[in-house]
């Protein structure tokens, strides 16, 4: 049995982790941590959870002895505060915020907050699971990827790795369900504002842009530059990234599909598909579905990637990373299917 | 008083026209035409309309004497059938379908149906109102633009006209509310399928792509090529087009906004805006709102255009074209504001 | 020309009033008042409004000279504060909050706040327009009815007035769109909470319950008691009240419809309908649609009433009351149709 | 290992059963049956299912040898046809339609179709699991309750069983998500019609009304009569029933809650709760949540019941019944939690 703690159980990612861990056969919830609601029980917070008697505790670094893995399901900045207190923590830390994803200079530019110590950030393993397994096995700090970054990077790494496309000419149009905006109250997420609406936000300034570029640069010989627009949709969950790229090879659409299937054919959570993409094909699950289409008129490719932002884009991938880190079957506790209807 | 007939009153565009004409001070509904529901009264069809006693008639070309303007709010293919019967009709025909928009060869390729006679299509004036006023004044046939085409073309014509961007490098990601898919029943529009979903459809094959290219070519020295992806959203109305282009001039974002305001400053229905775009800023109205942003990192521009697909993207623009055609004030009957909340 | 001021233009009812007044031929917006946003212009707040240059002012009772009618589109408690300062105001005050609706003792019980002076409340005319026209003609204070109260009272007054039903056995199940919960941020109205949800709230404690009973008591010989449950729905606008009552007369369903049509046949904003009720048949308009059905098995009646909570349930009825008060055509500026699709 | 067949896998209930069985440790899918799609594989129908290679077969009664339990996830009328062919089938039949729920005369009145043979209907056990366990153990035919009937009966059986309320004075206002209307295409479920709408339907004629009365009569000394209104909501899943009753005992609200907890305290799928009811507290799970409130002013009780119409209201309860029938742990395969966000 592996013991875990979840910090930030009142937020959406924390809640999703609670639900996933509750059904996990090996990883056991030892501590539910929340500074704002310490003292309450889980069942007071979420009356419909099964394991309700557990009491919420405030974050205390020296009370974490015996915890094998600590999930930080806290916002950027808050995670950094906790990370600074966790240097002496013996277990593994998986941070779902952006605080371990970028080197200090980039972090300050895109997040506008003080970064964690550079030596910690450098040591952290970026947990895009399918592309990080070896490094994850011995990681102390795991930086869980951003939701948009997961969707886009899983789609594009094969293309830049094999030099199939021009990495300087990548246009991403992405959209996300409202949980992507977090649980905090804001005008943007007031139902009467968000409903029957599409809101374009953080234009040219979304912090997942440098994260994607950094990931692509790891696998590409040429420095990647990505333009990404992010749209907030009136749905609860899910991300779709529609990506337009310029291929280097003049091969058929079938061949592009075939190439992608070759890369991902054995992956339990990635499905290369054909037909018309829809976000519902993954919502409620840890899958990433991918499609690739060739536009004969322009010789451009359209690559489409969909994930559930709360699962593969947050809590699901975090648990997948924990499974890998502790040598468990990678799919343990993660095989729920999309709700679909 | 100008008399009009509306063909296809059971469809969404027909209904929107009914509502708009009901509140128009000068254009009067003389005939409500529907082959499928002939004999019913308007109030049986729409109990909440004000002018309910009127009876629906079947389409009969020789019964249209005295009608000044006939709106064809019928699907592609159906409009073509009616158009073939309207050669001797004395009034003006405004077709909301795609049947007059493209030359025969392009039409056959993209619509997969038999085109109308070439001489009629050639004679038809493409009614992107803001850019077609002179020609509209004497038109017999007016081809009302497609919804996506309206949103994208209003955004891009100024940029290609002045050679501000590379017309061969235009990437459009567009999304539409469900009324854009029409009133016909389909799995795609069943609530349990479309709700909490995003569906990408007609990938690389949307019939508005050649329409946009044709419009841009009218104003550009260089042949335009456009890649456009179209997403079906779980909202009723509205289109947002997020357009990525490569500018030829190295000027500031403020200057780009300024240039666009210079072009459209006097237009009653076009508003160049700043801040974060949202589709709700136009839904329920005939406005087209535009934004332009410069991405300093990549030197690309992001241009955003939003319209209500049922108004500026269909019935609203059709009525605007009728106003122009008959020398009325262009905004007559079209000044309803966005519902917003 | 009649001049008006609107207090609370940042809220939903204030915004709806702004939009309605903007299209009203006779009533002219003289002052847009907001304590929280004083100094901004309307166009900074709502870039898509047409009359944007106007500047928001703070509430100052002595700056209202020359205003014919002042709309208080402010929450309960806030309206009371302003009302206390308006004793010397020369114009008409139309309060959209609950602060003038109930006598002091009931107000304190149901609102839990200090009431306005009893003599003001007593003098105020309760503006359920269709049933208050005579009194409205000379009113200084007009108390605009609550949204649920409008829907339910318009349905039931004819039945209790003619002693058609048992007024002690009235069960109302009502549901409302999210704008009914106001613009303030709350967990209840966070999209991720409210979407795909129904939330039952204020069980047995909704402040519109005594308001409905008071209205029915005005018209009934027997004291009415009403049980009402209120459900918050994931839609923006609209109220449906499904009302179950015990009839005193054993007549057919057709006769019940006929009786209701006799009462309301000449009303411009009330439509007695047949077929299946839907909330969309009024949303975006000032109409109240009514249906009555007889359950033969149980001899109960089901009466259904739908309104747009922002129009007939708030701003629309306020303007209708203003039209009556100033001797204008009652429908002026209020004939917009339901958006429907 | 228990083998099952599912008839009607293309419908919503069939799909939900497929998903539940896929994750069930003991019940194994042997046959996926669909007359309309025979020959396709499951993965062609639902590319995101895990067990995709299985081929759909047409219904053939003599090809079912070796199947332990056959789920009929087919519409009323269609189930009846199959049931007539299943007299010689050796296994257990669980019918999710209404075809086994009512005696012939009531069935003909409310369903308007020819009933199954009376001896089969009489033999069938009505599977409201919590109240039918003994009879289920030996049932050949199990009639799975209707969705509204499940929600309402679970709430009311304790009250009529103990004579706590007047069974002749029960008013139910119920609402359902759109999956309740089935997968068939209809104007009512076209997104542009259903979205932002509430549609009241089958007024006084819903076929679950006699089903509820029959269940209550089984447990009550006095014949029950129920009035129920059913509202179609723009959400995918979930039912809320808000029930108003007249109590016989003058006890406190706490005592009512206590009484209900006494009845259901040991039930794994029923939770008596306090606070404000919401439909989301069960959607995605097999739970039924119950609340009871006392209105002091009127001495009425409001009882609220919520279920997921696809789980506890259909496929979930069917599997729960199968678990009971075959002596398995009742919760097997049914402990998924509500999705909540």
Automatic annotation (TrEMBL), chains A, B, C, D:
Alphabetical list of InterPro entries matching this protein: AGPR (IPR050085), AGPR_AS (IPR023013), AGPR_dimerisation_dom (IPR058924), AGPR_type-1 (IPR000706), NAD(P)-bd_dom_sf (IPR036291), Semialdehyde_DH_NAD-bd (IPR000534)
Protein's recorded name: N-acetyl-gamma-glutamyl-phosphate reductase
Lineage: Bacteria, Bacillati, Bacillota, Bacilli, Bacillales
MF-aspect GO terms: N-acetyl-gamma-glutamyl-phosphate reductase activity
PANTHER family: N-ACETYL-GAMMA-GLUTAMYL-PHOSPHATE REDUCTASE, CHLOROPLASTIC-RELATED, N-ACETYL-GAMMA-GLUTAMYL-PHOSPHATE REDUCTASE, CHLOROPLASTIC-RELATED-RELATED
Subcellular location: Cytoplasm
Record Gene3D superfamilies: Dihydrodipicolinate Reductase, domain 2, NAD(P)-binding Rossmann-like Domain
E.C. number(s) listed in UniProt: 1.2.1.38
Reactions it catalyzes: N-acetyl-L-glutamate 5-semialdehyde + phosphate + NADP(+) = N-acetyl-L-glutamyl 5-phosphate + NADPH + H(+)
Gene that produces this protein: argC
Keywords on record: Amino-acid biosynthesis, Arginine biosynthesis, Cytoplasm, NADP, Oxidoreductase
Pathway: Amino-acid biosynthesis; L-arginine biosynthesis; N(2)-acetyl-L-ornithine from L-glutamate: step 3/4
Organism: Exiguobacterium aestuarii
Active site, renumbered: 147
Function: Catalyzes the NADPH-dependent reduction of N-acetyl-5-glutamyl phosphate to yield N-acetyl-L-glutamate 5-semialdehyde.
Residues covered by the Semialdehyde dehydrogenase NAD-binding domain: 3-139
Similarity comment: family membership: Belongs to the NAGSA dehydrogenase family. Type 1 subfamily.
Pfam family, one: Semialdhyde_dh
PROSITE patterns: ARGC (PS01224)
Chief localisation class: cytoplasm
Top-tier EC class: oxidoreductase
CDD domains: AGPR_1_C (cd23934), AGPR_1_N (cd17895)
């Amino acid at each position: 049995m592996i013991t875990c703690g979840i910090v930030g159980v009142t937020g959406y990612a924390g809640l999703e982790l609670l639900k996933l861990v509750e059904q996990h056969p090996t990883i056991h919830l030892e501590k539910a941590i929340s500074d704002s609601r310490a003292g309450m029980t889980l069942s007071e917070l979420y009356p419909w959870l099964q394991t309700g008697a557990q009491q919420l505790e405030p974050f205390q670094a020296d009370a974490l002895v015996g915890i094998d893995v600590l999930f930080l399901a806290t916002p950027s900045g808050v995670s950094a505060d906790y990370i600074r207190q966790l240097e002496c923590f013996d277990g593994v830390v998986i941070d779902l915020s952006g605080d371990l994803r970028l080197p200090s200079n980039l972090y300050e530019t895109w997040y506008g907050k003080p970064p964690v110590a550079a030596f910690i950030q450098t040591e952290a393993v970026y947990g895009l699971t399918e592309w990080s397994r070896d490094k994850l096995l011995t990681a102390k700090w795991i930086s869980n990827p951003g939701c948009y970054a997961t969707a886009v990077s899983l789609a594009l790494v094969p293309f830049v790795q094999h030099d199939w496309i021009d990495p300087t000419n990548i246009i991403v149009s992405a959209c996300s369900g409202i949980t992507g905006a977090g649980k905090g109250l804001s005008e943007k997420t007031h139902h009467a504002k968000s409903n029957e609406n599409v809101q374009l936000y953080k234009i040219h300034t979304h912090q997942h842009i440098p994260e994607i570029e950094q990931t692509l640069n790891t696998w590409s010989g040429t420095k990647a530059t990505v333009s990404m627009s992010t749209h907030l949709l009136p749905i609860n969950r899910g991300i779709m990234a529609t990506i337009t790229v310029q291929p280097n090879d003049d091969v058929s659409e079938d061949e592009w599909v075939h190439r992608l299937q070759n890369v991902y054919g054995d992956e339990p959570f990635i499905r290369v598909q054909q037909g018309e993409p829809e976000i519902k094909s993954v919502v409620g699950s840890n899958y990433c579905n991918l499609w690739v289409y060739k536009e004969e008129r322009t010789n451009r490719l359209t690559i489409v990637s969909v994930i559930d932002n709360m699962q593969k884009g947050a809590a699901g991938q975090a648990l997948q990373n924990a499974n890998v880190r502790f040598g468990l079957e990678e799919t343990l506790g993660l095989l729920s299917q999309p709700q679909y209807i």
